[in-house]
Structures are given as structure tokens and as C-alpha cells.
């Protein structure tokens, strides 16, 4: 039996623009985040757009969502590297790029994992119950102190602490159920603070 992802890929291969839009909306931000590790934001967005144009052009080649992701990340990496090569001056930049390319494999893998994890965390935050999500957002995204959140939402300080704890545990549990083993809540909190 086909799952939803497989249905989308089958429709995408057949030229269904709605299926393409679903893939685009799901993967655009992670690809931009991935590119931002190597190039400025405006260029990352341009490269991402080019990559999705190529994805559509070769749509009949993809059998799974993992094939699509692999193509997008490899194409984005190559697009960024090509951009950097075009930007370099002939002599000084050539040496810099050579050193950069040597260090890139590890950095690219790390940034791919981080961008997908950030995307997963955002999805989990969006799925939290309303009050829990509001407290979590005010605390971790907007930097409010517990007392400020309690006053703003007319709840107790203890309730704020409990809701933050519930949110972190829920996000961690849901990510672990998807096969992601985090080294603890501290890593999760650090990742959340890096969300764009």
C-alpha cells in the first residue's frame, strides 16, 4: 500500500503541479537553510529556486521522497559551490576555494542534518496545544522571562514552567519516535534558539 509521500511522488512524476507544490512547500526552507551555510541569503534563495526548476524538469526520474531530497541537497551544494567559484578572484580566491572545498564535506553533512532537524522542530512546535505553544514561543523565540509570560497570559509562574517543560518533553519524545536520538534537552534548546 502506498503512503501519502509515495502518492505525492507518483503524482509529481506524472506532472501534477499540486504534488510539486506540496514537495516545494515541504522542502524549500530546509534547502534555503542548507544553502545559507555557504552563500548569502539572497543567493541561497536564488539557488534554491534554480534547484526546484531542475527538479521539475527531471521529475520522471524520482521514485521516492528520499530520491527527491538527495537530488535537492546535491544540486543545492553544487549550485552553492558554482556560485562561490564564480565569485572568486582568479588567484587569491582560487586558493581560498580549494581550502574551502576540502572542509566542505563534513560541514555540508552537518548543515543538512541541522536544517532538517530545525524543520522538524518547527513542525513539532506548531503541533503543540495552543497555550503550550504560546508559552514556548514567548519564552524561546521571543525571549520573555517566565514572570513576564505569566503576567501576559494571566497564569501562574509555575504553570509557565510546567508548560515549557511539557513542550520540551513533547518535542523531544516526538523527535525520538522519528528515530532522532538527541543528547538531551540542552541540545534541543540550543537548536531552538537558532531557529530563523
UniProtKB/TrEMBL annotation:
Residues 24-88 form the RNA polymerase sigma-70 region domain. InterPro entries: RNA_pol_sigma-70-like, RNA_pol_sigma-70_dom, RNA_pol_sigma70_bacteroid, RNA_pol_sigma70_r2, RNA_pol_sigma70_r4_t2, RNA_pol_sigma_r2, RNA_pol_sigma_r3/r4-like, WH-like_DNA-bd_sf. GO terms for molecular function: DNA binding; sigma factor activity. SUPFAM superfamilies: Sigma2 domain of RNA polymerase sigma factors, Sigma3 and sigma4 domains of RNA polymerase sigma factors. Pfam families: Sigma70_r2, Sigma70_r4_2. GO terms for biological process: DNA-templated transcription initiation. Coiled coil: none annotated. Keywords: Sigma factor, Transcription, Transcription regulation. Residues 122-170 form the RNA polymerase sigma factor 70 region 4 type domain. Belongs to the sigma-70 factor family. ECF subfamily. This is RNA polymerase sigma-70 factor. It comes from Niastella caeni.
